[in-house]
């Protein structure tokens, strides 16, 4: 007598084949998902951490790195990024001062975000000195030419190397009696930093990474919203403002 409940041999083979096909399909979907994720995170920070990505020209985004404050803007043309109110530390809206700044701020031009000391392209002093420096393997130079004219390709300036790999106060070397190029002047009466670009001067900084990538940078201000909170001895610093472009 035939067993009516027995599974035909062909049915067993069909089920096994279906499982194989389903398994292969799942694998393909997983690969596609990873690929899409990588595409959406275009531009990874060193160490494979996700960078700040602004997909649409003219848009902005908040920084994502821990204890990093401020906002990043992407220009509608020319791929220029503008950083406003960049601060690393602790914000205290009710205290005096209104924030506790880290002794140094670290920024990655490659990932458009704050970072740590290992992955930084720019290192800012978290004090009123407002020095900006790069590491030994990098090069730093400046040109007394407008940022916009370089960014748009209208001018190919002459660059002057900065041997100290640091730029800050515009001053006089009292030993060699030469001008030490800086991105701001200092009003000793009002105890206020005065960025040169806000007083009719041009200064563009060029930084080349250890990997050979080159960025031009315009350092703009160190006060919150680019406005000192007092005529004398303002305290709302350092909230760094700058813009940059990879060339």
Describe the structure.
This protein has 247 residues and is an alpha+beta fold. It has one domain. The chain contains two helices and 20 strands. Strands 3, 4, 5, 6, 11, 12, 18, 19 and 20 form a nine-stranded antiparallel sheet that branches. Strands 8-7-9-10-13 form a five-stranded antiparallel sheet, with no helix packed on it. Strands 1-2 form a two-stranded antiparallel ribbon. A hairpin with a 4-residue loop joins strand 14 and strand 15. The longest helix has 32 residues. The radius of gyration is 26 Å and the shape is globular. The N and C termini lie far apart (84 Å). The N terminus is likely disordered.
Topology:
Layout: H1 9-40, E1 44-45, E2 49-50, E3 60-62, E4 68-74, E5 81-91, E6 99-101, E7 104-108, E8 113-114, E9 122-125, E10 132-133, E11 139-143, H2 147-151, E12 160-161, E13 166-167, E14 171-173, E15 178-180, E16 184-187, E17 192-195, E18 204-208, E19 214-221, E20 240-246
Antiparallel strand pairs: 1-2, 3-4, 4-5, 5-6, 5-20, 7-8, 7-9, 9-10, 10-13, 11-12, 11-18, 14-15, 16-17, 18-19, 19-20
């Amino acid at each position: 007598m035939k067993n009516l409940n027995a599974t035909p041999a062909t049915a067993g083979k069909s089920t096994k084949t279906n499982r194989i096909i389903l398994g292969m399909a799942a694998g393909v979907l997983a690969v596609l998902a990873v690929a899409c994720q990588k595409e959406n995170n275009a531009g990874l920070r060193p160490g494979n951490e996700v960078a700040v990505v602004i997909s649409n020209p003219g848009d902005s985004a908040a920084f994502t790195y821990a204890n990093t404050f401020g906002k990043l803007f992407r220009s509608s043309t020319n791929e220029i990024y503008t950083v406003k109110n960049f601060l690393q530390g602790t914000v205290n809206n009710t205290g005096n001062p209104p924030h506790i700044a880290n002794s140094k701020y670290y920024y990655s031009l490659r990932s458009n975000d704050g970072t740590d000391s290992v992955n930084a392209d720019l290192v800012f002093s978290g004090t009123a000195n407002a020095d900006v420096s790069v590491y030994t393997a990098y090069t730093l130079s400046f040109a007394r030419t407008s940022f916009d004219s370089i960014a748009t390709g209208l001018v190919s300036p002459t660059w002057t190397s900065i041997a100290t790999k640091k730029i800050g106060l515009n001053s006089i070397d009292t030993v060699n009696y030469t001008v030490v190029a800086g991105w701001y002047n200092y009003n000793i009466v009002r105890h206020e930093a005065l960025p040169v670009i806000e007083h009719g001067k041009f200064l563009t900084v060029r930084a080349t990474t250890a990997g050979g990538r080159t960025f031009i940078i315009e350092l703009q201000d160190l006060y919150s919203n680019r406005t000192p909170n007092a005529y004398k001895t303002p305290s709302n610093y350092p909230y760094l403002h700058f813009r940059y472009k990879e060339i």
